[in-house]
Amino acid sequence: MKTLLSALAAFAVGALAMRAWLSRSASQDAPHAHAAEASKEATHSDTENHAEGELKVSKATQETLGLKIAAATEVSAAEEVDAFGRVLDPGPLLSLVAELQSASATAATSEQEWKRIQGLFEQDRNASARMLEQAEAARKRDIAQVGSLRARIDTTWCPELLQLQDLSGLLQRLGSRQQVLVRLDLAADRIPVAVPASARVTAIGRDDTAGTVTILGRAAAADPQFLGAGYLGLLSSGTLPAGTALTGWVPSGKPNANRTLVPDSAVVRTGETAAVFVQTGAEVFQKRSVTLLRSTEAGWLLESGLKTGEKVVITGAQALLSAASKPADAD
C-alpha cells in the first residue's frame, strides 16, 4: 500500500513539472511566432494588388525593400536600323590578295624589262624587234592578270578594300586573329543613304561580345535572303570563329530623335516582355510594359510605353516583380 501511494505521489509531481516546462517554453516561443506572423501580415497587407496592373506598397515596406525612385529622362539618340550578320572566313580573301600582290610584283618586273628592251631597241643596241614584242606581250599579260585579280576582289568582296592605305597591315591582323571580318545585311527598305562609318554588333546569345564594327564599304553582292544591302567591316574580337551569327545596329543617317532613357536596373522581364514599375501614387506602383529600343552605357532607350518625367523604380524593381507575381491568397 505504501509503495502504491509513493508511486502516485511521484507521478503527480512529474505531471506538475512537465506542465510548468511546457508553459515556460510556450512563453519563450511566443515572440518568434508573433514576428513571423507580423512578417506574413506585412507581405499581404503592405504589398498587395491595389488594382489591375497596380501594386500597393506601404511606406514602411518601401523602406524595407530599399526602393529608389527616379524620373525617366530624355536624351537625343541617333536613329539606327537592325541588321543581321556573320563572321566571315578570311582565308579566301587572304589567298586572293596574296595572289594579287604576287601578280603585281611580277607585273612590275615585266614593266621594267619591257622598258629596258625598248630603250636598247631604240638605240639599236643588241635588241631585236622580236625581243621587244615578247617583252611587251609579257608586260600586257601580267597587267591583265593584276586587273583580273582586282576585279575578282571588287566583285566578290568589297571595292573599297583595295583602296585601303594599310592593306598589308589589315591582312596581318586578320591572319593573326587580332580582328575578324564581318558582313552585315539590311533589308531593302532600311538601307541608309550613305555608307555608315561604323555599326554596333553583338554575337547572338553572347552579350559579352558586343563591339563596334568599322565599316570598310558596301559588299559587292547582295545576300539573296535579304535582297537589300550588305556591308563588310572589321571587328576587334578575334575570339569569334567564322560563321558566328551577329545582330547589328547600323546608323540610319536620319537626324537624331528624342528618346526616353531608364537605368538598366529599372527594367524587369517576364518571359519575352520587358516592363518597369511606375509610381502613380505615394504608395501605388503600376507595372508598365515597355518596348526596348536598344541598350546604351547609360541604360535602356525605350521606343514606347513610358513618358519622359514619369517616376520609375530604379532600385528594388525585381522585389516588386516578385510581390506582383505572388497570388493574393498565397500563405
- Rounded to the nearest angstrom, the radius of gyration is 38 Å
Please report which band the strand proportion falls in: under 5%, 5-15%, 15-25%, 25-35%, 35-45% or over 45%: 25-35%
Going by helix content, strand content and strand pairing, the class is alpha+beta
Write the element-wise H/E pattern from the N-terminal end onward: HEEHEEEHHHEEEEEEEEEEEH
Average the pLDDT over all residues and give the rounded result: 81
Which outline best applies?
Answer: rod-shaped
Distance between the termini: 57 Å
Low-pLDDT parts are 1-45
Biggest pleated sheet = 8 strands, antiparallel
Count of distinct structural domains: 2
Helix content: 25-40%
Instruction: Note the total helix count.
Output: 6
Strand runs, count: 16
Describe the structure.
- There is one protein chain.
- The protein is α+β, with helices and mostly antiparallel strands and 331 residues long.
- The protein has two domains: 47-78 and 256-325, conserved putative lor/sdh protein from methanococcus maripaludis s2 fold, CATH 2.40.420; 84-251, no CATH class.
- The protein contains six helices and 16 strands.
- Strands 1, 2, 4, 11, 12, 13, 14 and 15 form an eight-stranded antiparallel sheet that branches.
- Strand 13 and strand 14 (284-296) form a beta hairpin.
- The radius of gyration is 38 Å and the shape is rod-shaped.
- It starts with a helix and ends in a 6-residue tail after the last helix.
- The model is unreliable at 1-45 (pLDDT under 50).
